[in-house]
Amino acid sequence: MGDRETCNHSDVTDFILVGFRVHPELHILLFLLFLLVYGMVLLGNISMIGIIVTDSQLNTPMYFFLGNLSFIDLSYSTVIAPKAMVNFMSEKKTVSFVGCAAQFFFFALFIVTEGFVLAAMAYDHFIAICNPLLYNVHMSRRLCTQLVAGSYFCGWVSSILQVTVTFSVSFCASRVIDHFYCDSYQIEKISSSNLFVNKMVSLSLAAFIILPTIVVILVSYMYIVTTVLKIPSSEGRKKAFSTCSSHLGVVSLLYGTVSFVYLTTPSNPELRKVASVVYILVTPMLNPLIYSLRNKDVKQALRKILWKKKALS
């Protein structure tokens, strides 16, 4: 009992990431699947950033936010996927204490930042549809930059707090994390400390950081729907809704899977891992497709780039 009380986080030098509890033969299949999806994440998001940066016609607030969204998607997938793929092919499946804390920090940073950027995009749509005559006044370059900078600041504050409370606890009971990455819930499960402070910090972050982004998105769309329904022509209503449909799809996919993982009863750990794959890899893979397939400006910019390459060759 005395050893248990004196044990602290400095006694642990590494953790074991269990990953998916499948037959060893299937680890190669998991590696190839992750490699394929992660490759599509890289290709799609780097292409989207490249198109936005090179085409001057896409120098608007919406594409400024979209470019940042692609960078964030690319970043938090990169924080998780490469290490997971290495562990699929490794027998040890370990991650150092510092490596685990770093992975947790950057993942929390980018996932929280994405929530705020999505809220900023909802506000952008709200201004564009509900107050189009003053759009250029409200959505200035300066404001857009401040919104994105504020998103990163909130993500940074959130990740600092989460990492501090999560990795300052004792890990005497176990160092085995039942996940393919350093997930906060699974890290707390192997802690032997009182987690009251951790729970209070999580609730505070949810109340003051996560909840406001959801409120901004919901209120923005309430006003958008009300305004669109007042448009007399069906063509005008269709055009207005198509402007928001891509963003709404991305928001629903991200918040739906994250809510399932962190708000539902953890009765099936393997199902939670699959859901985690959706928001870590599948959502970042689909986001560029959703925005490019339903966006005439992006498709036109892509055609211009391909035509220039064809002309040069």
Short description:
This protein has 313 residues and is mainly α. It is 76% helix and 3% strand. The chain has a three-stranded mixed β-sheet with strand order 2-1-3.
Can you give a write-up of this model?
- Belongs to the G-protein coupled receptor 1 family.
- It is a multi-pass membrane protein.
- This is G-protein coupled receptors family 1 profile domain-containing protein.
- There is one protein chain.
- The protein is mainly alpha-helical and 313 residues long.
- The protein has one domain: Rhodopsin 7-helix transmembrane proteins (Rhopdopsin 7-helix transmembrane proteins, Up-down Bundle).
- It has eleven helices and three strands.
- Strands 2-1-3 form a three-stranded mixed beta sheet.
